Amino acid sequence: MAILFNSPQDDAGEFEAWRKPLTAADPNMELRFWPNVGRVEDIDYALVWLPEPGDMQRYPNLKVIFNLGAGVDKLLADKTLPYHIPIVRLVDPGLTSGMTEYVLLHTLRHHRGQHVLDQQQKDRVWRQKLFPLSRNRRVGIMGLGVLGADAAAKLVALDFDVAGWSRQHKSLPGVTSYHGEDGLEAFLARTEILICLLPLTAETRGILNAKLLAQLPKGACLINAARGGHLVDADLIAALDSGHIAHATLDVFHKEPLPADNPFWVHPKITVTPHVASLTQPETAIPVVLDGIRLHKTGRPIPNTVDLKKGY
Ligand code: NAP
Ligand code: GLV
């Protein structure tokens, strides 16, 4: 059985980190590190992150594409993908807990005004300010899927007042659920720290725009850990410069790596992180992929197969 591997980190060390445990689990698995794939007819499964557009159609016997990340927006942008086979997105405990750590870290920074304290240290200013109890801090998560639901549960455990917005209504302990177009306005009106964990689809592209930001209360903060395409960059800069939005933490961008001349790098009210909110961890992702291959071989459906109509 031959498996095409396209490393998320694009290096040989990452390839070995996958090859060794996979071949230890099943010696019949032969991992081939793209672009050295050998005979294209041999390839049964593909484990890929951002493959070159057009590449996936080259393998006539390909049975499943495992996307080595949660978001499939870039993958699905390739109109030549073999859409008749399952395309499976990654849901694994390491990816989920990584994102929850990121959300907690930056929610707490906003909640406690850490950006202001960082500046005070630079200016050698000693000034105390009382921050609200977490139960009085209203956090809102756009996207209450695998990642949003886990982050929401951990924020509830810290006693934050948590709401989520999704397509369908959700019943999650301690989380107020808003859904659909009709629920968005009320969700935004009560949200002081907004976290975007939506998939990027035709419906959600550009959703973080001037109209949406204006519906947040004055002084709200934004954390975008989903995709750069959700944000209208100029609208965020305008909302920060007017003082309506107090601070934004951005992990994802229209163009990655973020170009050196992008104003986000130096904006005093923006924190930039280099798409590290949650990276795919071989230790937890490999068992998930192995399970997926086993299920496919026994003719059973693979969990987290992408719904092509919804686009996520
Ligand atoms: P998921 O389980 O598919 O959850 C998606 C959520 O978004 C669902 O709750 C869904 O609502 C909601 N949603 C989708 N379209 C919507 C719409 N038009 N209106 C309202 N709600 C909508 O996805 P996930 O695993 O949580 O991942 C979310 C995203 O995080 C990924 O797509 C990826 O872009 C991003 N991500 C980023 C990083 C990073 O390092 N920055 C790492 C991993 C993932 P329903 O539940 O009602 O369907
Ligand atoms: C990372 O951005 C992912 O989608 O897993």
Report on the architecture of this protein.
With 312 residues, the chain is of the alpha/beta class. The protein has 2 domains: 2-92 and 280-297, NAD(P)-binding Rossmann-like Domain (Rossmann fold), CATH 3.40.50; 94-272, Rossmann fold. Helices cover 31% and strands 17% of the residues. The chain is built from 9 helices and 12 strands. The chain has helices at residues 12-25, 73-76, 93-111, 114-122, 146-157, 180-189, 210-214, 233-241, 282-297; strands at residues 2-5, 30-33, 43-48, 64-67, 87-88, 138-142, 161-166, 175-179, 193-196, 220-224, 245-250, 270-272. The protein has a 7-stranded parallel β-sheet with strand order 8-7-6-9-10-11-12. Helix 3 packs across helix 5 (146-157). The longest helix is centred in the N-terminal third of the chain and has 19 residues, at 93-111. It is elongated. The model has no long low-confidence stretch (mean pLDDT 97). It binds NADP nicotinamide-adenine-dinucleotide phosphate and glyoxylic acid.
Count of helical regions: 9
Oligomer: single chain
- Main sheet specs: 7 strands, parallel
Order of helices and strands: EHEEEHEHHEHEEHEHEHEEH
Backbone structural class: alpha/beta
**% residues in beta strands:** 15-25%
Radius of gyration: 21 Å
- Average pLDDT level: 97
Shape, please?
elongated
Weakly predicted, low-confidence segments: none
Give me the CATH fold name of the largest domain: Rossmann fold
Which CATH class of the largest domain is shown? Alpha Beta
- Each distinct ligand: NADP nicotinamide-adenine-dinucleotide phosphate, glyoxylic acid
Domain unit count: 2
Numbering strands along the chain, what is their spatial order in the largest sheet? 8-7-6-9-10-11-12
